Amino acid sequence: MKVLMVCLGNICRSPLAEGIFRVQVNAAGLDWEVASAGTGDWHVGHPPDRRGIAMAANYGYDISAQRAQQFSARMFDAFDHILVMDKNNLRDVLKLAKNDEQRRKVKLFLNEEQEVRDPYFDNALFEPVLLEIEVRSKQLIAEFSR
């Protein structure tokens, strides 16, 4: 199983989701690949946002070695599930899909109506976002394991 988390810049939400999901996958004894990407290219090669790294560390997750990459159409073939953090990124990812098979791989991380809030401009959102990702990651692992 290969799972990709996607947000705008790949420095806040998707790196948190990648790190948390990977730890939970490993704890469940699953041999899954987990990665993240951003729809934009501004931060390619950069580590996650320092606030996200610090908040993740407070909860026992080390995301400091991750580096941002940009989402590309080739990722449709490389991943089984592509989970996006908000509707804008959902739209941008789906624009690159060439067929229904690729489109079926893409969905919002939380659910069809709920988005993961972007903490980039609000320091106070990093902790609630992390906690929301923790809960949803457990649900997704159970769902994908069926």
Supply database-style keywords.
146 residues, alpha/beta, four-stranded parallel beta sheet, 43% helix
Write a brief caption for the model.
The chain is built from 6 helices and 4 strands; from the N terminus they run βαβααβααβα. The protein has helices spanning 13-27, 50-58, 75-78, 87-96, 100-104, 126-145; strands at residues 2-7, 33-38, 81-84, 106-108. Strands 2-1-3-4 form a 4-stranded parallel beta sheet, with helices on both faces.
Explained architecture:
The chain has 146 residues and is α/β, with parallel strands linked by helices. Helices cover 43% and strands 13% of the residues. The chain has a 4-stranded parallel β-sheet with strand order 2-1-3-4, with helices on both faces. Strand 1 (2-7), helix 1 (13-27) and strand 2 (33-38) form a beta-alpha-beta unit. Helix 1 (13-27) crosses helix 6. 41% of the residues are buried. The mean pLDDT is 97.
Please specify the SSE layout and strand pairing:
Layout (H helix, E strand, L loop, with lengths): L1 E6 L5 H15 L5 E6 L11 H9 L16 H4 L2 E4 L2 H10 L3 H5 L1 E3 L17 H20 L1
Parallel strand pairs: 1-2, 1-3, 3-4
H and E order: EHEHHEHHEH
Mean pLDDT: 97
- Assembly category: single chain
Biggest sheet layout: 4 strands, parallel
Unreliable parts: none
Helix content: 40-55%
Q: How far apart are the first and last residues' alpha carbons, in Å?
A: 12 Å
Cα Rg: 14 Å
Q: Please count the beta strands (DSSP E, at least 2 residues each).
A: 4
Strand portion = 5-15%
- Widest beta sheet: strand line-up: 2-1-3-4
